Amino acid sequence: MNCVECDREVSDKASNCVGCGAPVGSTLPSPPPLHAGQVYAAPHAQPQPVARTRVAYILLGLFLGGLGIHNFYAGYHGRGIAQLLITLLLGWLIIGVVITGLWALIEIITVDTDAAGVRMV
User: Fold this and answer.
1) Which residue, 25, 60, 81, 92, has most beta carbons within 10 Å?
2) Nearest-CA neighbor of 82 among 64, 62, 67, 70?
3) Contact 67/103 with Cβ under 8 angstroms?
4) Please, what is the end-to-end C-alpha distance for the chain in angstroms?
5) Residue 64 class from Cβ within 10 Å (0-12 exposed, 13-18 middle, 19+ buried)?
6) What whole-number distance in Å separates Cα of residue 58 and Cα of residue 119?
7) pTM of the complete model beyond 0.70
8) pLDDT, the chain, mean
9) What does the pLDDT look like over 63-101, one tens digit per residue?
10) How far apart are CA 10 and CA 3, in angstroms?
11) Confidence of residue 105 (pLDDT cuts 50, 70, 90)
12) Beta strands in the chain (DSSP E)
């Protein structure tokens, strides 16, 4: 009979394969043998996404919306950078502040999920 793991010839009376140490007659694959100093890592759970609070998003949008801080909070980094640049580059013309102010106002009314798609609570 042959070993399931290494396909080496094994005696019918043997309980383990001489080559790889796998149990004879087992259909389940055994884990690879540990080498000196090697340790298996314990499985870890995937991190759960953190729900952002809608109140914090709205307050950041109202007070710092022209700088895009509310978008950084929600994970929308591209939008945040765009609002920050528009305000910094065109803010002295007042048009930049008007554009980003309206943009922030519309976002605090319509956006209810963060960048990961998790609904804000």
Assistant:
1) 60
2) 67
3) no
4) 62
5) middle
6) 14
7) no
8) 86
9) 999 999 999 999 999 999 999 999 999 988 999 999 999
10) 6
11) very high
12) none
pLDDT band of 50, cuts 50, 70, 90: confident
The encoded tokens of residue 70 equal 């509310």
CB 66 within 8 A of CB 97: yes
Q: Tell me the residue type at 12.
A: D
Distance of CA 63 to the CA centre of its chain: 29
Q: What is the pLDDT of residue 44?
A: 77
Write the CB contacts of 5 (distance below 8 Å, at least 6 apart in sequence).
Answer: 17, 20, 22, 29, 30
* Calpha distance 55→48 (Å, rounded): 21
Task: Specify the DSSP class assigned to residue 34.
Answer: P
Other residues' Cβ atoms within 10 Å of the Cβ of residue 51: 13
Lookup result for tokens 């305000």: 87
